[in-house]
Design brief:
Elements: E1 3-9, H1 13-22, H2 30-35, H3 39-52, E2 62-71, H4 72-78, E3 85-88, H5 105-108, H6 111-145, H7 150-165, E4 174-182, H8 183-193, H9 200-216, H10 243-250
Length: 253
């Protein structure tokens, strides 16, 4: 099951953003500005930044998430968001011992489709296991014959084996990752991925992340979400036509 958790963020992110924006127009230094910022002043300044569409100051605040129960397919979409940092469980160093994969809801809801899907997953994992064992034995033999001590040879053989065996694994494979984005990148991420036209898995990830960002910095993410939540749909004639539903989810009703 998809699970994402906000594990760290910039201390006092909203106060920092307000101070960073104010320094552009103030003769005072950052320390003095920070000291003079009350919660009311921070809220007012964030609203002004939002109304003006002045986004560069919010880049100073960053948020780090840990995600589990997500597919390699989602990872391919996620890493298209280039202003971000990713650390992902490696299939080169971590050998899969048990089948672990994500099943799309539409497949799970169809008995015949689910049977085909699960059989395909089992075959892929069985082939992965057989390939890993065959390659491991060959690499171990070659390394041992070359004079490598057994412990070192086994370690090197294992890595070399799973490095190539993983090529048969499907996009459905479950993975884990840690991701850091600044607030401006997150606004862009939520605008694109909370949209009803986004793929179902990354959309669910985005909504969970948005809820946690709002809990940590409500003023900073007050108007975060897909474009239709607070204005016109950016999808044009490709619109899903469900803006009212999205606005309710965003609390904008």
């Amino acid at each position: 099951m998809l699970k994402v958790r906000l594990i760290a963020h910039t201390p006092e992110p909203e106060k920092l953003v307000a101070a960073a924006a104010m320094i552009c127009y103030s003769p005072s230094g950052a320390d003095e500005i920070m000291e003079g910022l009350s919660p009311e002043k921070v809220d007012g300044f964030l609203r002004m930044l939002t109304d003006m569409g002045h986004e560069s100051p919010i880049e100073h605040a960053s948020f780090t998430f840990a995600a589990e129960g997500v597919s390699r397919s989602l990872l391919a979409q996620l890493t298209r968001h280039r202003i971000a940092s990713f650390s992902v469980q490696s299939q080169r160093y971590v050998r899969g011992r048990e089948p672990s994969f994500i099943t799309p809801p539409e497949i799970a809801a169809d008995k015949a489709a689910a049977e085909i899907y699960e059989a395909s997953m089992r075959r892929a994992w069985e082939d992965y296991g057989r390939l890993a064992e065959l390659l491991f034995e060959r690499h171990l033999r070659e390394l041992t014959e070359a004079g490598e001590d057994e412990r070192s040879a086994r370690k090197k053989a294992e890595k070399a084996a799973i490095e190539d065996a993983r090529f048969v694994l499907p996009n459905a494979c479950e993975t884990k990752l840690v991701m850091t984005m600044n607030a401006r990148s997150l606004h862009n991420f939520f605008r694109l991925r909370c949209c009803m036209r986004a793929q179902w898995e990354i959309r669910e990830l985005a909504w969970q992340m948005l809820e946690q960002c709002r809990a940590a910095a409500p003023g900073l993410f007050a108007k975060a979400g897909p474009s239709c939540a607070y204005g016109a749909c950016s999808e044009g004639k490709m619109s899903c036509g469900r803006a009212a539903e999205v606005r309710r989810r965003c609390g904008n009703v």
